[in-house]
C-alpha cells in the first residue's frame, strides 16, 4: 500500500461519519463511501498534491449531490431507517431533533455545516470542497445555523409536550 | 487599536465559534460578548447545536469499518481493469517520456497537444465572454444544441449541472479545434460571471488536472478517454478546480445523467466516458 492509499485508508472512518450525517442512513452512507473510495483510487492520476482528506470530501460531496439530484427525479418516498428509534423517547431526544433540523437544510448549507462542526475543516478547505469563495461558505453557515435555531425553537416545546 | 466597542459582525461571531479568528480578534469578540449577553447567548446556542451534531454522529468513527470498505478488497476487485489501465498508462508514460526527451531542445517551441488545447480554449473564452448579444450560437433552450454538437465533436455530449456553483448553461457554439471540431459551452452566474467548458477529441492519453493562468483568466485542463476538457473562467483556482471535479464526477458513465431543472433530458452536454 503506497502513501497515497494509506492516507485514503486513514480517512475512511471520518468519511463514514460525514456520509452518515449527510444521508441519515447507514447503508446509503457506506455505499457513498465505497463509491468515493473507488473513484479516489481510480483517479489517483488526477490528484495533484495537497490534502488527500479534502479531496476525498470533495468527491463524496459531489457524489452525494448527484445522488440527491437523481433521487429528485424518481418520486420514491424513502423511509428513514429507524434503527435507533429508541432514543426518540429517551433522554437523547435532542439527537433526533438535530437530525430533523439538518434534514430540512438545503444540501449546500448542510454540507458546509457538517464539514465545519463534524469534520473540523477550515473555511478555506470547505471553500475548496464546495468550489465557492469563502464568503459564500460563511453565508451558507450563517443560514444553516439560523434555520436550525428557528426549527428547534419552534419544534422542541411541541415535542416535549408529547412526551 | 481595535475598538472593542465597534459592533461585531455576524460573520465574526461565526468565525469565532469555528476557531477561524486570529488571537487579537478572539479577544475583541470575547470583550464584546461580555457586554452583549444576546450575542453570547446566540453563540451558546450555536455551540449546543454543534455539540448535538457531534453527539449524534461523532461515535461512528469508532465503529469497525465494514469489510466492503476495506481498501485491499476494493483494490482487488478492480485489479483486472487496473492492469489494463496500468499498461496503457505505462505505454503512454514511456511514449510521452521519449517524446519529451526528444523534444527537450525544442520544448518551448513544441507545446503538448493539451497545452494547445488550453490556449485555444482560453482564446475562445476571452473572445466570447465579452459578447453581450451573441456569446453563443445556439441557446441552451434549443433542443438541437446537444445533438448537433455531439455529432460534430463525435461523442454523446451531456450537460453538466453546475447549479451548485451558481452557474446556468447559456448555450454553446462550434469551433475549429486542435485535432477536430471543438464544442464550447458557456455558463453564467447570477452576478454575470462567465465560465466556459471546451471539449474536443485529443490524441493524448489521460492526463491529470493542469492549471494555467493567462492574464485575469484561469484554465483547468485534463484529458480522458480520447477527449480533452478545459474549464476556463476568472483566475480562481479553487473554484475552477471545484467545477472541474464536479464535471469529472458527472462524466462517469455510472453516474445517472443529471437533468438540469426545467430542461429536457436530451439537453445534456457531457461525454460519457467509454461511449
Key structural traits:
heterodimer, A: 163 residues, Rna Polymerase Sigma Factor, Chain: A, Arc Repressor Mutant, subunit A, 2 domains, 8 helices, 0% strand, disordered C terminus, B: 275 residues, alpha+beta, 3 domains, seven-stranded antiparallel β-sheet
What can you see in these coordinates?
The complex is a heterodimer of chains A (163) and B (275). Chain A has helices spanning 3-23, 26-42, 52-73, 86-89, 93-103, 107-117, 123-130, 134-162. Chain A is built from 8 helices and no strands. Residues 76-92 and 157-163 of chain A have low confidence and may be disordered. Helices cover 75% and strands 0% of the residues of chain A. Chain A is globular and about 50 Å long. In chain A, helix 2 packs across helix 3, helix 5 crosses helix 8 (134-162) and helix 7 (123-130) packs across helix 8 (134-162). With 275 residues, chain B is an alpha+beta fold. At the A-B interface, helix 1, helix 2, helix 3, helix 5 and helix 6 of A face helix 1, helix 3, helix 4, strand 5 and helix 8 of B.
Put the structure in a nutshell.
The complex is a heterodimer of chains A (163) and B (275). By secondary structure, chain A is mainly alpha-helical.
Q: Given the helix and strand composition of chain A, which structural class is it?
A: mainly alpha
Radius of gyration of chain A: 17 Å
CATH superfamily of the largest domain in chain B: MucB/RseB, C-terminal domain
Estimated helix fraction of chain A: over 70%
Q: Mean pLDDT score of chain A, rounded?
A: 82
Main-sheet strand order of chain B equals 1-2-3-4-7-6-5
* Second rung of CATH, namely the architecture of the largest domain in chain B: 2-Layer Sandwich
Order of helices and strands of chain A: HHHHHHHH
Order of helices and strands of chain B: HHHHHHEHEEEEEEH
| Termini Cα gap of chain A | 53 Å
- Domain count of chain B: the total is 3
How large a portion of the residues of chain B is in β-strands, by DSSP E?
15-25%
Low-confidence parts of chain A lasting 5 or more residues at pLDDT below 50? 76-92, 157-163
Gyration radius of chain B, to the nearest Å? Answer: 24 Å
Amino acid at each position: 500500500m503506497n502513501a497515497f492509499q494509506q492516507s485514503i485508508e486513514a480517512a475512511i472512518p471520518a468519511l463514514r461519519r460525514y456520509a452518515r450525517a449527510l444521508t441519515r442512513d447507514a447503508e446509503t452512507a457506506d455505499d457513498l463511501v465505497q463509491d468515493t473510495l473507488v473513484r479516489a483510487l481510480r483517479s489517483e492520476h488526477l490528484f495533484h498534491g495537497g490534502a488527500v482528506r479534502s479531496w476525498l470530501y470533495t468527491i463524496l460531496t459531489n457524489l452525494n449531490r448527484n445522488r440527491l439530484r437523481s433521487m429528485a427525479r424518481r418520486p420514491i418516498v424513502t423511509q428513514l431507517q429507524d434503527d435507533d428509534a429508541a432514543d426518540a423517547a429517551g433522554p437523547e431526544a435532542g439527537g433526533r431533533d438535530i437530525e430533523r433540523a439538518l434534514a430540512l437544510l438545503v444540501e449546500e448549507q448542510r454540507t458546509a455545516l457538517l464539514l465545519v462542526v463534524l469534520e473540523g475543516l477550515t473555511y478555506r478547505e470547505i471553500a475548496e470542497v464546495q468550489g465557492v469563495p469563502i464568503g459564500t461558505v460563511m453565508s451558507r453557515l450563517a443560514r444553516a445555523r439560523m434555520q436550525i435555531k428557528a426549527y428547534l425553537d419552534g419544534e422542541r416545546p411541541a415535542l416535549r409536550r408529547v412526551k | 487599536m481595535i475598538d472593542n466597542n465597534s459592533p461585531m459582525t455576524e460573520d465574526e461571531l461565526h468565525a469565532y465559534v469555528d476557531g477561524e479568528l486570529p488571537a487579537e480578534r478572539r479577544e475583541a469578540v470575547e470583550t464584546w460578548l461580555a457586554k452583549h449577553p444576546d450575542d453570547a447567548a446566540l453563540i451558546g446556542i450555536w455551540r449546543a447545536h454543534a455539540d448535538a451534531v457531534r453527539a449524534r454522529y461523532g461515535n461512528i468513527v469508532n465503529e469497525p469499518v465494514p469489510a466492503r470498505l476495506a481498501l485491499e478488497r476494493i483494490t482487488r476487485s478492480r485489479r483486472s481493469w487496473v492492469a489494463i489501465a496500468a499498461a496503457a498508462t505505462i505505454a503512454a508514460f514511456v511514449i510521452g517520456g521519449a517524446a519529451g526527451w526528444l523534444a527537450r531542445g525544442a520544448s518551448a517551441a513544441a507545446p503538448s497537444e493539451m497545452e494547445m488545447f488550453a490556449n485555444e480554449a482560453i482564446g475562445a473564452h476571452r473572445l466570447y465572454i465579452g459578447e453581450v448579444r451573441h456569446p453563443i450560437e445556439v441557446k441552451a433552450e434549443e433542443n438541437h444544441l446537444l445533438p448537433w454538437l455531439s455529432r460534430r465533436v463525435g461523442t454523446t455530449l451531456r450537460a453538466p449541472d453546475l447549479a451548485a456553483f451558481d452557474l446556468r448553461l447559456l448555450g454553446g457554439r462550434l469551433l475549429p479545434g486542435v485535432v477536430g471540431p471543438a464544442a464550447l459551452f458557456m455558463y453564467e452566474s447570477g452576478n454575470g460571471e462567465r465560465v466556459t467548458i471546451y471539449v474536443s477529441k485529443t490524441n493524448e492519453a489521460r492526463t491529470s488536472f493542469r492549471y494555467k493562468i493567462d492574464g485575469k483568466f484561469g484554465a483547468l485542463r485534463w484529458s480522458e478517454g480520447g477527449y480533452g476538457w478545459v474549464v476556463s473562467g476568472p483566475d480562481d483556482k479553487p473554484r475552477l478546480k471545484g467545477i472541474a471535479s464536479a464535471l469529472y464526477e458527472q462524466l462517469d458513465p455510472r453516474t445517472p445523467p443529471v437533468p438540469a431543472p426545467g430542461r429536457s433530458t436530451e439537453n445534456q452536454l457531457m461525454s460519457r466516458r467509454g461511449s
